[in-house]
Design brief:
4 helices; alpha+beta
Length: 130
C-alpha cells in the first residue's frame, strides 16, 4: 500500500498539468541542444503571480539527454550524456508570450527569479525559490 501511495505522489509531482507549457519547455530544450521530446520534466510549480493572474512565473527541473553533433554520431564513443537542468518560465497571457530559461546552477536561476518576481506575489518556503 505504501509503495502504491508513493507512486501516486511521484506521478503527481511529475505531472506538468498544462500541455502548452510542457510543449514549450520541450521545444526550448530542443533549441538548447537537448532531446526535448524524451526529457523528464519534474517539479513544475507556480512560484510567482501578478494579480489578476495574467503574469505567472513557474519553476521546473528537467533531466535531458545531450544531443550529439552529426560528426560525432558515426564514431563509437561514450554512452549518451544526460544533463540535470533547472528552469524558469515567465508566462504573460495578455501578450501570449512564454520566456523559458535553462540553468545549470541554482544560484543563476534564483538571481533571474528575483529580477522577474519583483513586485509579484511569491510562493515562499520549500516549493518556492526563496
Amino acid at each position: 500500500m505504501r509503495k502504491w501511495l508513493e507512486s501516486i505522489a511521484q506521478g503527481w509531482n511529475d505531472w506538468v498539468g498544462d500541455k502548452d507549457l510542457e510543449n514549450a519547455i520541450r521545444r526550448q530544450l530542443d533549441h538548447a541542444g537537448y532531446f526535448g521530446t524524451s526529457a523528464q520534466i519534474t517539479n513544475v510549480r507556480l512560484v510567482a503571480i501578478q494579480r489578476p493572474g495574467w503574469l505567472q512565473i513557474y519553476r521546473f527541473e528537467a533531466n535531458a539527454r545531450v544531443r550529439i553533433e552529426p560528426e560525432e554520431a558515426d564514431a563509437p564513443g561514450p554512452p549518451p550524456k544526460h544533463a540535470q537542468l533547472l528552469g524558469l518560465v515567465q508566462e504573460d497571457f495578455r501578450k501570449s508570450l512564454k520566456d523559458i530559461r535553462l540553468f545549470d546552477e541554482p544560484e543563476a536561476r534564483r538571481e533571474l527569479f528575483r529580477e522577474w518576481a519583483e513586485g509579484l506575489i511569491q510562493l515562499r518556503g520549500a516549493e518556492g525559490l526563496g
